[in-house]
Write a structure and sequence with these properties.
The structure holds two protein chains of two kinds. Chain A is α+β, with helices and mostly antiparallel strands. Chain A has helices at about 15-25, 45-50, 55-80, 100-120, 155-165, and strands at about 5-10, 35, 145-150, 170-175. In chain A, about 45% of the residues lie in helices and about 15% in strands. In chain A, helix 3 (about 55-80) packs antiparallel against helix 4. Chain B has one domain. Chain B contains 16 helices and no strands. Classes of the chains: A alpha+beta, B mainly alpha.
């Protein structure tokens, strides 16, 4: 029994070929596309029609929460929970709360950036069908791959393979589910 | 963009996507380490042993084994802390600020410099902790709802320090790790041994270089750089507040924050050069870290050194111009007091010697640069000695004046911390790619996609 196909994986030799192929595949109507490359490639997201990432909004929210919580913590600790006169300053001596507020803003924003990056990328993820494809280890070396998923309504094992070959793919591999 | 980039990365022209990885990743995947590595880590571990010995004795007996006493309550521990944390700053400058300024040459050295930052912060953090007297209660500095019903005193620069240094340590670690993930994936795909594959696989977390990944990745990397840039400035600013917020003559000065930040970058570039020059030779990385890289770093060393020199000048000028009795005395005590030799040697190390860097020949001579960097590192350590000791030993009341001398345990911990740093550095270059493979790949000429170009052939 052959395993269910996940899709097709085409390898290109150069980044420019991958970008071009991604554009053409989209023009042909394919939507369930992904590309794999050893480094970020300029224009590839646009060619694949990816929407801009929402990460900056998340990071802004994380930073805002960190800053407000940091300032709130200090006001609460120094003026409400255990009011203590230091150096004759008022209880809410906000200028001296600035450094800790700033540091906590940066800390929470940075943690949100990293957690957000992995969450939006769906990582950590121990396995993915493309790892099973022959030659995929070159995606971290010198291979530039375009994948078309079998879930795409236009997907047809033969036609899609022909399209990828005409787009200049060096190899087209089947990817099992 | 093509101009400066191809100039700096000129020798990379012979490389392709695969050869970059073979050269850089090959160092990690090689079965045997070079003999110099083995010798180096042996020395570092020996020094680390001294550090552990000194620390154990300190924990058993107490800070009385150090030379600190009234009136100089801050001795080597604080000097070493400021010195180490300052060294870390160049790493963040290279990885974050030069990224935002679009300096493509940073690609060859950012990984190494970030590792240096992490390890320098680790060394720095041990000193104030050991200085606490009861280091095992260090967590009292962190705000948490404790049974004593107390809070840290948030108006104190020492509490700000805890927040600044721990945030700096965590953010540097995150930045470094995020930068490593694509390379860890490459190592996972290339490693032969089962254990290595497992270890790299777990750390790479299933990274597969998908366009979705890269899209978020590039944004995240820029955001982290944008966050790290004000952070690094804030860290040494807060460190300088430890001094400037007090009323001790010679410390109570508004020039301290910028002067400390410049000094931090100055010493950090000294350390980067001290690491890069021998490593590049040991691992034959001249293709990636060229003489032009050294030249660029030497220029930054010179520039930050000039800011530091300006700081020394302004310190003396403001003491004279302000006319405060104690400020003037603190300054003349530096020039002519019992610690005058340290002051004059710091001027030689930090102001005079770096002037050699105006010469292009010196900037291109690796070993001259290495020697100058060592001198700068020593000079920056002396600067912190002068700031800490000369201000404290003679303040307002001559009746409370005194002298400070380090004991042998002070020296054991200073030299031992070099062992800690060295050992971490040696382990790092053996286990992880010390140059960012994917960033070097992305800067190869064949990586560029010309705009408006239709693909295929």
């Amino acid at each position: 029994m052959t395993p269910r196909p996940w899709g097709l994986l085409a390898r290109f030799d150069r980044p420019a070929e991958l970008v071009g192929a991604a554009e053409r595949a989209r023009e042909a109507g394919y939507r369930r596309l992904d590309a794999y490359s050893p480094f970020p490639i300029e224009g590839l997201s646009d060619a694949l029609g990816l929407r801009p990432t929402r990460l900056p909004l998340l990071v802004f929210a994380g930073g805002a929460v960190g800053g407000l919580a940091g300032f709130g913590l200090q006001v609460w600790a120094m003026a409400v929970d255990y009011p203590l006169v230091v150096d004759g300053k008022p209880f809410v001596s906000w200028p001296s709360f600035v450094p800790v507020t700033f540091e906590l803003t940066v800390l929470c924003a940075a943690l949100t950036t990293v957690l957000g990056l992995f969450a939006l990328s769906g990582l950590p993820r121990p396995h993915h069908p493309v790892f099973g494809a022959d030659g995929f280890e070159r995606a971290s070396r010198d291979g530039f791959f375009l994948a078309i998923e079998a879930a795409d309504p236009l997907f047809d094992a033969n036609e899609t393979r022909d399209l990828l070959t005409t787009l200049g793919a060096r190899e087209v591999a089947d990817v099992a589910e | 963009m093509k101009g400066p980039e191809s100039e700096v990365l000129g020798p990379l022209r012979g490389h392709d996507f695969a050869s970059v990885e073979d050269r850089i990743g090959g160092i990690v995947l090689a079965r045997k380490a070079p003999r110099a590595w083995t010798a180096g880590i042996a020395v570092a571990l020996l020094l680390l042993l001294g550090f552990l010995y000194g620390t154990t004795y300190l924990l058993a007996v107490g800070v009385g084994i150090w030379g600190v006493n009234a009136p100089v309550g801050w001795g080597f521990a604080i000097i070493n802390f400021v010195w180490w944390i300052g060294i870390g700053h160049a790493g963040t400058l290279i990885s974050a600020i030069l990224l935002l300024l679009r300096q493509p040459w940073r690609t060859s050295i950012n990984r190494l410099a970030e590792a240096m930052t992490l390890f320098a912060v680790a060394c720095a953090a041990t000193f104030p902790a050991l200085h606490l007297g009861r280091p095992w209660l260090f967590y009292w500095l962190v705000p948490y709802p404790d049974t004593m019903g107390l809070w840290p005193q948030f108006r104190s620069p020492l509490v700000w320090d805890i927040f600044a240094v721990s945030t700096y340590g965590i953010v540097s670690l995150l930045f470094w790790f995020v930068g490593l993930v694509p390379d860890l994936a490459a190592m996972r795909d290339r490693a032969r041994g089962r254990a290595a594959r497992m270890a790299f696989g777990v750390l790479a977390m299933g990274w597969r270089g998908s366009a979705e990944h890269w899209r978020s990745y590039e944004t995240a990397y820029l955001l982290l750089a944008g966050l790290a840039t004000p952070l690094v400035v804030s860290v040494h600013t807060v460190v300088s507040f430890d001094f400037a917020v007090s009323v001790i003559p010679g410390w109570h000065s508004t020039i301290f924050p910028p002067y400390f930040v410049a000094g931090a970058i100055f010493s950090g570039f000294g350390m980067v050069l001290c690491l890069v020059i021998p490593l590049r030779r040991l691992y034959r990385l001249e293709d990636f870290i060229t003489d032009k890289h050294l030249d660029a770093m030497a220029k930054l060393l010179l520039a930050s050194g000039l800011i530091v020199a300006y700081g020394y000048g302004m310190e003396a000028f403001m003491a004279w111009y302000g006319g405060g009795t104690y400020e003037v005395y603190a300054q003349t005590n530096r020039f002519r007091g019992p610690y005058a030799p340290t002051y004059w040697s710091l001027l030689v190390c930090n102001v005079l010697v770096p002037q050699l860097l105006w010469s292009r020949r010196v900037r291109r001579a690796a070993w001259a640069l290495f020697a100058i960097s060592l001198i700068v590192l020593a000079g920056m350590w002396l600067e912190r000695f002068v700031i800490v000791v000369t201000s404290l030993h003679r303040d307002f009341l001559p009746s409370s004046w005194g002298m400070y001398a380090p004991t042998r345990w002070d020296w054991v911990l200073l030299v031992g911390s070099l062992g800690l740093f060295g050992a971490l550095m040696f382990v790092f270059v053996r286990l992880l790619p010390m140059i960012s493979i994917f960033e070097v790949r992305a800067s190869l000429p064949q990586a560029h996609v010309e705009r408006g170009r239709e693909g295929g052939q």
